Amino acid sequence: MVFTQSYLLKSVKKPIRNYLRSRFLDTLRLTTKGGHGGNGLPKYGGVGGQGGAVYFVAKEGKSLRDVVTKYPNKRAVAGNGEESSKARILGRRGTDQKVEVPVGIRVLDDEAGSITELDEEGKTYLASGGGSGGCSGNSFLGKPGQLRTLTLDLKLIADVGLVGFPNAGKSTLVKAISNASPKIASYPFTTIRPQIATIEYEDYRQITIADLPGLIEGAHANFGMGHKFLKHVERTRLLLIMVDVFGFQLSQQHRKRNCLETVYALNKELELYDPTLLDKPCALIINKMDKEGAVDEICKYERYFHSLQDGLKMCPEELIPSKLLTIDAVVPISAKSMKEIEKVKHEVRTILDLKAAEKLHMDWPSTRVAQGGLFHAPKARYTKETQDLIKVLMEEAKLTILQRNKINYHLRNGEPLPVPKEPKFEQEYSNFLPVAIPRKNIKKRSLHTIIESGAFDVEKYVPHKPKEPIEKVKLKLQEQMSGIKMFPDDGRRRRRVLRSKSEGCMDYVPPDRASELLEEINERVQWLEEMEALGEGKKHRATIQLQIAEKLNELKRLDRAKSQENEI
Ligand SMILES: Nc1nc2c(ncn2[C@@H]2O[C@H](COP(=O)(O)OP(=O)(O)OP(=O)(O)O)[C@@H](O)[C@H]2O)c(=O)[nH]1
Ligand SMILES: [Mg+2]
Question: Which residues line ligand 1 (CB under 6 A)?
Answer without folding.
Answer: 164, 166-172, 184-186, 188-191, 213-214, 287-288, 290-291, 334-336
